[in-house]
Amino acid sequence: MPELAAQLLASHKVELADRIVSRIQQRIHGYSRISTLELRASVEVFLDRILSPSVHAEPGELLDIVMERSESRVRQGFSLSEFLGALFSVFPAARSVIREVGLDSRPEFAASYEALEGRVHELMVKSAEVYSETISQQIRSKNEELNRLNQRLSAHEKLVKQESSSIGKALTSANEFNSRVLQSLSSGVFVADAKTRKLVLWSGRMESITGLSAERALGRDIVEVLNQLEGLDGERLVAEVRRTNKLPVTKMKLRRPDGRDAWVYVRGHRLLDAEGEPEGTVGVIDDVTERELLIDSFSRYVSRDAVRRVLSRSEPVSLGGERKTVTIFFVDIRGFTSLAETQSPESLHALLNDYFRLVIDSLAANQGFIDKFIGDNVMALFVRTSNPAEGARQAVRAAIDIQRSLLRRNEGEGAGEVSIQVGIGVNTGEVMLGNIGSKERMEFTAIGDSVNVTARLQTLARAGEILIGESTAALVEQDFVLEDRGLSQLKGRREQVRVFAVREAK
After folding, report:
1. Which helix (H) or strand (E) holds 254?
2. Distance CA 382, CA 425 (A)
3. Cα gap 463→72, rounded to integer Å
4. What angle do CA 65, 67, 73 make, to 5 degrees?
5. What is the 3-state secondary structure (H, E, C) of 477-500?
6. 60-97 pLDDT, tens digit each
7. How far apart are the C-alpha atoms of 490 and 503, rounded to whole Å?
8. Inter-CA distances, 287 with 121, 182, 230, 292, Å
9. Spatial contact of 358 and 404, defined as CB atoms under 8 Å apart
């Protein structure tokens, strides 16, 4: 019967509990995670149940306690060996108490203790089963939760893959679209990284304009690449963009690696991120070689200003004009008919080219616009909308320059060369300035009485003279020495015109 041993141990329960707690704390380190008070309370509850006389009558109550302790220890992270080790600490502690009392040698007591020990062993086996099942349930629960998490993660990964695929397709499509846009531009575009200065974009149009392939440009320093184009200072361009964040449109003449020349407009700016920090340098190059060749070619037949005016129009050239105050200029060789009679066509051609060169250089230097050539007669206009007086002064300066240049030529002529002398007329007034003719053939010129007066003044001027009208004289009298020639009756006019001769600049 286990009651005798149980009664003895119950009478020494305090001492027995102390020994069990001490043994557990010394030999099972995992129990250092709980306090001594909690451990002792748990041990006392366990002893109360196994030493109770009613333990056989109500075994389920003890099993409930074991199950509750098992679940608690599982939650606290104890292993099965640690839990069983704590249970088995009861036996050595109980034996030590019995030895001290001295009853262990009595046969009836030994039988009673053996029965008690057997009952405790059965309880421990059941406790092990309960503990193992509790751990298994916890593992199953965690596995189920892990499976649920894995399922959600798998679904999320699938969704992320779909979104990534969609974003990748969108990026690819956007990159292809941007590439097609860049290739369709007539301008060449290049982009360099702000930190490394290495080129990350070199459009197809850049290849055709510069003659440098993308393979020779991408991944290399922007200055190193641009400096392969003679006439383009890559270091200055990059420095200007970094200093001001932009490079205004600049006209340049480049020599490509293949030796061909190209006229281009270059502009650039910096790319900034959302925080205003530089991300890169963008450059745009427009090839205007054909335009410059067109200007150069046609300006040999009409004035360069006229060609630029036509090319700059956004609408077709049409007939019509507008009223403007301009200064008109006429120059003509004196005695040209007699001169032509004594010269061969070849000599006359060379003579006129020499003459026109002097006239054109002087007019261009003073911003005159050559309207037309009429035999040996040249008509030019000086248009200064905001300051007509400046246009008048420039016309008179041009006239003085022409007379002086011809004088130097004539004085330095060699034997057999022909002297050239001219008369010049200058007048200022309101004219209709614009295109006349037909849709098939038109000419930009000035029309009005002031033009006719200028032509008559030029006819009236003797060799080496510069005659100007009264309106021009009023505008330039502070800058030039003038001689009042009085009123003159010009051919084809009813009213007389006051004429002034220009002597020299003041």
Report:
1. strand 246-255
2. 13
3. 128
4. 105
5. CCCEEEEEEEEECCCCCCCCEEEE
6. 666 676 667 777 777 777 877 887 788 788 888 888 88
7. 21
8. 101, 15, 15, 10
9. no
- Strand 466-469 and strand 422-437: pairing? parallel
Q: Are 270 and 245 in contact (CB under 8 A)?
A: yes
pTM over 0.70: no
Report the alpha-carbon distance of residue 88 to residue 467 in Å, rounded. 137
Looking at per-residue pLDDT, the higher value among 307 and 368 belongs to: 368
Q: Compute how many other C-beta atoms are within 10 angstroms of the C-beta atom of residue 225.
A: 23
DSSP state of 417: P
Strands (E) across 334-376 are located at: 369-374
Output 408 or 272, whichever has higher pLDDT: 408
Asked if residue 110 lies in contact with residue 4, where contact means CB atoms within 8 angstroms, the answer is no
**Closest by Cα among 144, 204, 151, 208 to 180:** 204
Residue type, 19: R
Place of tokens 């893959």: 161
122 and 116 in contact (C-beta within 8 Å)? no
Q: Between 107-184 and 80-88, two packed helices, what is the crossing angle to 10 degrees?
A: 160
Across residues 116-142, what is the average pLDDT? Answer: 76
Q: Which domains does the chain have, with CATH numbers?
A: 3-147 (1.10.490), 185-287 (3.30.450.20), 318-505 (3.30.70.1230)
In the predicted model, what is the mean pLDDT of residues 459-485?
94
Cα Rg of the chain, angstroms = 56
What is the rounded distance in angstroms from the CA atom of residue 79 to the CA atom of residue 370?
Answer: 108
Residue pair 93/19 in contact by the 8 Å Cβ criterion:
yes
C-alpha 76 chain-centroid distance: 60
Across the strands, what pairs with 255? 230, 261
Give the lowest-confidence range in 278-282, 414-418, 422-426.
414-418
Pairing of β 278-287 and β 377-382: unpaired
Longest dimension (CA), the chain: 170
Q: Which amino acid, 190?
A: F
Model confidence at 304: pLDDT above 70: no
If you ran DSSP here, which 8-state letter would residue 461 be given?
Answer: P
Both tokens of 350, joined, read 């060379």
CA angle 337, 340, 345 (to 5 degrees): 150
The tokens describing 95, both together, are: 């034996």
Q: With helix as H, strand as E and coil as C, how does 189-231 read?
A: EEEEECCCCEEEEECHHHHHHHCCCHHHHCCCEHHHHHCCCEC
To the nearest 10°, the Cα dihedral for 452, 456, 461, 465?
A: -10
Q: Which single residue is written with the structure tokens 């991944």?
A: 219
CA atoms within 13 A on the CB side of 356: 17
Contacts for 192 with CB less than 8 Å, ≥ 6 apart: 198, 199, 200, 222, 238, 280, 281, 283
How many CA within 13 A on the CB side of residue 357? 7
